[in-house]
Structure formats: C-alpha cells, structure tokens
Design the sequence.
C-alpha cells in the first residue's frame, strides 16, 4: 500500500521498491497519459545532518541525469517536493534488471553478453564526456526493456566533476563491483566505472564474481589485492581473447586500465567479431547483438525500472498472533532508526564521535531493544568495516587518512583489541 495517493500532479498506483533511503512508486501523469517511476526519500531521514547530505545527493542525481539525453540511460523528467517529500520523476521502464537475469541462471553466449555490455559502454562514453561518473555500475542498475534495449539507471551517487559533495575518504558503491580506488576512499574518475563494467562482464561470462567474500571488508581487500583467474579457465565456452580484455579492464592501477569507454568497447567488439565500431551518438545506440536471445530471456515478463523476482507462494499454517514483544509506537521508532542506520552505512558514514553515523544509529536502536539482531549485526559490521578501511588506507599509502581513523578509534574504542592492532600496524611507519 502506498503512503501517498498523489505526489504533485502524479497519481500513485503502487510501490515498485523500497530501500534504506527511500521508496520508488509507479505513478501516472494525467496530463500526457503516461506511466512514470517516482523516487522519494524517507521523510524521517531528512531532519538530520546526514539527511541534508542525502537530499543534496538526491538533487545531484536529478541534476546529473537531467543533463543526460541518451537512449541507453533511464530518463528523468522532473524534480520537485510535495507534502514535505522531495521526489523526482523518471522514465518507467518495462523489463528486467540484469541482476534478475543473472540470478535466473540464464546461459548467454559471449556474443549476447557483449550485446548487453556494448550499450552500457556507449552510455558511459556519453556521460563521461559530460564529466559525470556513475560510481555504482552493477547489474541491479542495468535494465533490459521488453524490446531488448539496455538502459543504465540510478545516478544517486554520481559524481559531477564540478561538485565537491563527494569527498576523499568516503566509500560509496557496492563492494563486489567497486574499483580499488573506491575501496580506499580515494578520488575516482571515469576509469572507476570501467572497472565496474569489467566486473559485470567477468560475472556474465563465468557465472561468478571476480572478487568474492562472506563480508564486505573481505571483498574490498580482494578487490585491492587479488587478481582474478582468467575467465576462459573458468568457462571453456569463453574464447581466450576475452582474457587480456578483462585483465586490462580490471587492472588495479588506473593508468594500466582502459582510459575510455570507447577503447574498452572497441576491444570487446573485436573479440566477438562485430566488425567496425559505430560512433557514439549514431543510430547504433541500444542495438543488441543477439537481441532475440535476450528477448527470450525477458519473455517471462517483469515490470518497472527494476522488476523484482518474487518467491513462489507457500502454504501457511494459520495461528493466533502472539502479543508483540515491543509496543507498536516503540517499534515504529526502531524501524525509522534502522532506516537511518542503513542509510548512514550505505553512504560510508560508519563511525564518528559527533554521532550522526551508522554505529551510533544502531546503538540508539539497541537502547530501545537490546536484543535487536539487525542492530547488533549492523553495529558489528560498521565497526569492522571502519577498522578494515583504516587498514586498507594504511597499506595503500593513504597514511594521513589512516592516522585520522586511528585517532578516531582511540576516542570511540579506546580499549578495543582492534584499536590496539591498528596502533601496532601504524607504529612502524
């Protein structure tokens, strides 16, 4: 059930998805009779320092995508506020996200896979030329319409070249698809997006991510230090010609990586024998190699700018509901604070002596409900990622930033073994 009947002129029809930061609705524009996707921020997040930062990022996404007119990018139509809720209105895309395609276990030929990656690189060539770095390229943000057109969505953490909002030391992105420079909180540029495309390509070709681990900190360590096995060794159906392309795309050193999306795209099309590379901006945008196979993949249906797969229904045993362990009004506070904590975590605000961070938000939940498993796990993960990030920064040569982490650790966790280990690590340098 939607929280709204209308946002501005738009009629709200259903909820398409929910996350820690906000909700995406399916809406209808009565003026021109078209369906749209409407992205909002949770209102309970807005009255904090972090909420103001999120609102600025939200506005940045609207500004960034609003500048983009490209058939392989989900379009944005409007940014506004209503009933105290900021929102922006996007193109409603009928189809499936690439994450769903991967999860469904569909087997695609190398040519079909390049048919997905090629338009992604075309779109990135366009955005990079405008000075916009996406920063969160991953399968969940790549959509394939019912007509077989590939589109990039969610520029929510995009970095404009003239913006100071994204600062060094802030880790943004999804660990499995982040570049090494993102993992250590360094400045990123267009080449970071190309690394993420390389990760997606590797996963599509082999069926597994190149950098794996049970915890995000382990994954990030592997991104920085581990060279993945050549894809042709993991999947015999993958031509060996892909190996040098992936090696270059996933280079740890940005200067050894592909420098432009066009260079990456050119090598990729040569591998599958696609002939000459059409110029960016030409009529080739969104044309898939082997589109018929992809349309067959999508034939199962789906919807939204991000159709989500659903589990089959199960037979339930009807029992009398137990009395709630926590009063409803207290549970509402807990749920709101968990949203705040997850949002802090997602934007990399892990630990701070001034509060307004993931660790402190989870602690506020525990003050209300000491047994809350989500808060206990979240607080432990925030603390672990904080210390791991400090270690990664130190080992990668970002020593001033690492020392700042150590000083903060001494304030927040003065008697913790992790603080002692971090002190010993930095004692020699």
Sequence:
């Amino acid at each position: 059930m939607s929280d709204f009947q209308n946002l501005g002129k738009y009629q709200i029809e259903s909820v398409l998805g929910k996350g820690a930061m906000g909700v995406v609705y399916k809406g209808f524009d009565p003026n021109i009779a078209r369906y749209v996707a409407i992205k909002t921020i949770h209102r309970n997040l807005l009255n904090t320092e972090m909420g103001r930062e999120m609102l600025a990022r939200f506005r940045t996404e609207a500004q960034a995508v609003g500048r983009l007119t490209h058939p392989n990018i989900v379009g944005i139509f409007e940014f506004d506020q209503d009933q105290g809720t900021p929102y922006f209105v996007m193109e409603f895309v009928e189809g499936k996200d690439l994450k769903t395609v991967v999860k469904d276990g569909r087997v695609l030929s190398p040519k079909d896979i390049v048919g997905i990656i090629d338009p992604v690189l075309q779109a990135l060539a366009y955005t990079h030329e405008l000075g916009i770095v996406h920063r969160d390229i991953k399968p969940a943000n790549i959509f394939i319409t019912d007509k077989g057109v590939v589109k990039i969505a969610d520029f929510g953490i995009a970095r404009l070249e003239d913006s100071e909002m994204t600062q060094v030391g802030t880790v943004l992105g999804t660990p499995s698809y982040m570049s090494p420079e993102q993992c250590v909180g360094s400045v990123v540029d267009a080449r970071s997006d190309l690394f993420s495309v390389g990760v997606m390509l590797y996963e599509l070709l082999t069926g597994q991510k190149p950098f794996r681990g049970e915890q995000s900190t382990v994954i990030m360590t592997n991104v920085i230090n581990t060279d993945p096995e050549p894809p042709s060794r993991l999947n015999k159906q993958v031509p060996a010609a892909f190996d040098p392309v992936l090696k270059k795309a996933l280079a740890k050193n940005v200067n050894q990586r592909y420098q432009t999306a066009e260079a990456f795209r050119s090598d990729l099309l040569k591998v599958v024998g696609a002939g000459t590379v059409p110029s960016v901006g030409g009529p080739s945008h969104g044309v898939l190699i082997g589109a018929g196979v992809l349309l067959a993949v999508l034939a199962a249906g789906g919807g939204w700018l991000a159709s989500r797969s659903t589990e089959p229904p199960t037979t339930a045993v009807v029992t009398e509901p137990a009395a709630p362990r926590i009063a409803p009004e207290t549970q509402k506070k807990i749920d709101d604070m968990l949203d705040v904590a997850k949002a802090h975590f997602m934007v990399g605000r892990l630990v701070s002596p001034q509060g307004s961070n993931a660790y402190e938000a989870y602690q506020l939940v525990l003050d209300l409900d000491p047994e809350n498993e989500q808060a206990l796990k979240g607080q432990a993960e925030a603390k672990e990622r904080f210390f791991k990030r400090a270690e990664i920064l130190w080992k990668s040569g970002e020593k001033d930033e690492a020392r700042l982490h150590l000083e903060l650790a001494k304030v927040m966790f003065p008697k913790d073994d992790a603080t002692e280990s971090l002190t010993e690590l930095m004692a020699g340098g």
User: Anything to note?
Assistant: Residues 328-427 form a domain with the Serine Threonine Protein Phosphatase 5, Tetratricopeptide repeat fold (CATH 1.25.40). The chain has 15 helices and eleven strands.
